[in-house]
Amino acid sequence: MSDNIGNEYKKIKTAYEYIRKKTDVVPHIAVVLGSGLGEFCECIENPSIIDYHDIPDFPVSTVAGHKGRFVFGHINNIPVAAMQGRVHYYEGYSMQQTVMPIRLLQELGCDILMLTNAAGGINPTFRAGDFMVIRDQISSFVPSPLIGENYPTGTRFPDMSNIYDNKLSLDIVHCAAGLGIPVKEGIYIQLSGPNYESPAEVRMCRMLGADAVGMSTASEAVAAVHCGMKVCGISFISNLACGISPVPLDHKEVGEAAAKAAPMFNKLIKEFICACDK
Ligand code: HPA
What we know:
Elements lengths: L2 H20 L6 E5 L11 E7 L17 E7 L2 E7 L10 H4 L1 H8 L4 E10 L9 E8 L27 H14 L4 E7 L8 H9 L4 E3 L3 H9 L3 E11 L10 H26 L2
Helix pairs in contact: 1-3, 4-7
This protein binds hypoxanthine.
């Protein structure tokens, strides 16, 4: 094992030991909460809260609207972990650093990872406020988090033909239907950010088959599949992407739109977690 991977693994082990001293919850499901969607944590019973700042060597987000903490606890007796905030490649972290929390969650026992984000709608049938179940992704415009010596929990050339687990994705669709929450399904594309896309880039993304664009998630999904987790994801369409929206984009809008959608979003995630146990 090279020093590089050795150091990464050591950091994960150190973070693991720290968290294990704070909570004995072994999460079955972890949810990574995107911009403005962190309120979901209030649904978690008997929460143990661990600030990212307090975890040795843990990457801490610098983005407004990202709280930066883990919440461990239960939903209907199902052990869960939620990440209120994540770090992004555009903050200057390496891709390997951005996926360190995902590898840590796997080490802590998570079998299922739900990734959520706020995204710009590219599909012309989408509206701000929609939810999109992520069925596949394009991550070719950002470096793979697997570049470098192979991380020991997965193979060198992992298959990516079913990144978003089909059954879990259909479970989300069924839960949404049961709750009367309309959801779209589609392809998420990750770009580096932090600038929003130009209209020409949004047209390019559409031509490539993407339905929603954002600055996270796809690289986390690759790392999660590589370490054997089942993955599913929901994009909250906080705005129409540039060129589709008639007005310039403003990051404040993303948080405001997410705050409005939070009650429905929380219900959907909670229902999905309960369904996962059946
Ligand atoms: N583009 C990229 N990322 C985003 C957007 C967008 O329009 N909205 C929220 N995150």
